[in-house]
Specification:
single chain; alpha/beta; Rossmann fold; 7-stranded mixed β-sheet; about 45% helix
């Protein structure tokens, strides 16, 4: 009998979590807005790191030593810092976010860790403060769904990427803003990108596009 009661509670909790997730997904579809700064620390948790290991994610994104990288929507900075380590001393990573508090927090982490090849800046994805052909790679991890006009943002990414530069997305189903891979591919192709690689499955996938 006790086992049945425990099972009922587990199922009840699971149903509540699924219901809350569905409500969040609906709310985010009706009204897109950047994740508040305090939420970035909540979603940067050990469970996510097991599903999306930061160092492995950087390698999965094709980041190599010496590359110049733009990381859009760095959140708590864990994946950005991993990318900076992967790019190495000869590379450079610039992280941008529209939320000043996110950048302030990341700046503090950068200074505390003494990371010389990582810079954090407040910026609007529709009008990036960079010259054309500035970056080898642009990465977004569970971010594109927060942007109200994704194709417009991707057109700006196209401008600042070098010829044949890479635009990389990683998406996790647990994210309320999760877009289907087919949807993301449609947006990217509309902004003149070509799909180069698709890694993963419906639950956790990475798409790597090439500028054309």
């Amino acid at each position: 009998m006790r086992g049945i009661v425990i099972l009922q509670w587990v199922l009840l909790i699971l149903a509540a979590v699924i219901g809350l997730h569905m409500l969040l997904c609906l709310a985010r579809k009706l009204h897109k807005f950047p994740i508040p700064a305090f939420m970035t620390r909540i979603i940067d948790n050990p469970l996510r790191h097991r599903i999306q290991p930061p160092r492995e994610t950087a390698r999965r994104h094709g980041i190599e030593p010496g590359m110049t990288l733009l990381d859009v929507g760095p959140g708590n900075g864990t994946y950005t810092i991993a990318a900076a380590h992967t790019a190495g001393e000869s590379g450079k990573v610039v992280a941008v976010d529209i939320e000043p508090k996110v950048i302030t927090h990341l700046d503090q982490r950068i200074q505390s860790a003494g990371i010389a090849n990582l810079e954090a800046r407040v910026a609007d994805v529709y009008e990036l403060p960079f010259e054309a052909n500035s970056f080898d790679v642009i990465t977004l991890i569970a971010v594109i769904g927060e942007i109200p006009h994704p194709v417009r943002a991707m057109q700006e990414f196209h401008r600042v990427l070098v010829p044949n530069g890479k635009l990389v997305f990683s998406e996790l189903f647990l994210d309320p803003d999760y877009p289907r891979a087919a949807t993301l591919r449609k947006w990217a192709e509309a902004a003149h990108f070509r799909l180069e690689k698709h890694v993963g499955n419906w639950f956790y996938y990475t798409l790597i596009f090439e500028k054309v």
